[in-house]
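in:
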């Protein structure tokens, strides 16, 4: 299988049996001068058989039998890396959007999904996420309130992946005290044709920076290294919005992680854990 570019169109619609949805078109728009009468009109008064007393129905023809929230997404389907054909692959991603719980309604705030993953030592997990630099929640604000409360530059999404000791904590551990990276094996990573050569510290730096850095030392990745590249903004403002990710296996254990930018103790929790059995 070769890499395929795909478009996924997602929408939902509201239908009604008050008229034939398959044979009713704009040709039936109300036009009495031409003898055309729509099967539905705005706020009609209906006769209930009580003389001249009519009861008004709450009908808005602009909202009657229509498609809502039409969204199209472009993505790629890639072949599995060689040697992983028989392994189960879990997808660890980020859902939600920028804003507080009212502003994002009916969506949700940022969250890892699944935020509780159980896998075996024979399984792999693809850690990845997508984001945007053009989030717009100005007036009228859709179903929720306007605004995009959050950290970093307004209108932008960012996530990263760092380890912490316990799900009840909100501080990441230094690399030297981490356990997840020494337990990890890399079967694929977006920036290297030789994933087995990726150093554990370089993997940690890459995921903590949302892909802004590929490695620590310039001798390994030159201009994409911590040593050579401009400093990473501490709110990830200059990091990529999306992260193609890495395909990882882990030895037995439980590993807790969080996003440093979006995990806001008073507002939202962007944390998760991986249990390897």
């Amino acid at each position: 299988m070769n890499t395929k570019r795909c478009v996924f169109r997602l929408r939902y619609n509201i239908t009604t049996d008050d008229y034939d949805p398959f044979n009713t078109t704009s040709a039936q728009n109300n036009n009495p001068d031409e003898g055309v009468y729509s099967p539905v009109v705005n706020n009609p008064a209906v006769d209930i058989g009580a003389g001249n007393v009519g009861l008004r129905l709450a009908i808005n023809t602009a909202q009657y039998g229509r498609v809502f929230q039409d969204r199209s997404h472009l993505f790629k389907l890639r072949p599995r890396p060689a040697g992983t054909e028989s392994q189960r692959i879990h997808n660890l991603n980020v859902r939600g959007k920028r804003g507080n719980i009212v502003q994002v309604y009916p969506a949700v705030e940022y969250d890892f999904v699944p935020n509780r993953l159980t896998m075996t030592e024979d399984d792999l997990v693809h850690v990845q996420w997508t984001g945007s630099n053009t989030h717009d929640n100005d007036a009228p604000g859709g179903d929720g309130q306007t605004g995009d409360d959050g950290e970093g530059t307004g209108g932008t999404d960012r996530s990263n992946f760092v380890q912490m000791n316990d799900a009840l904590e909100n501080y990441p551990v230094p690399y030297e005290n981490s356990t997840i990276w020494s337990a990890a094996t890399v079967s694929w990573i977006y920036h290297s044709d030789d994933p087995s050569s990726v150093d554990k510290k370089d993997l940690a730096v890459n995921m903590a920076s949302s892909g802004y850095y590929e490695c620590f030392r310039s001798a390994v990745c030159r201009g994409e290294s911590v040593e050579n590249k401009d400093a990473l903004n501490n709110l990830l403002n200059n990091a990529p919005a999306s992260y193609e990710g890495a395909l990882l296996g882990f030895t037995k254990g439980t590993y807790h992680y969080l996003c440093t930018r979006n995990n806001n103790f008073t507002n939202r929790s962007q944390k998760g854990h991986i249990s390897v059995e």
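note: DSSP finds two helices and 13 strands in the chain.
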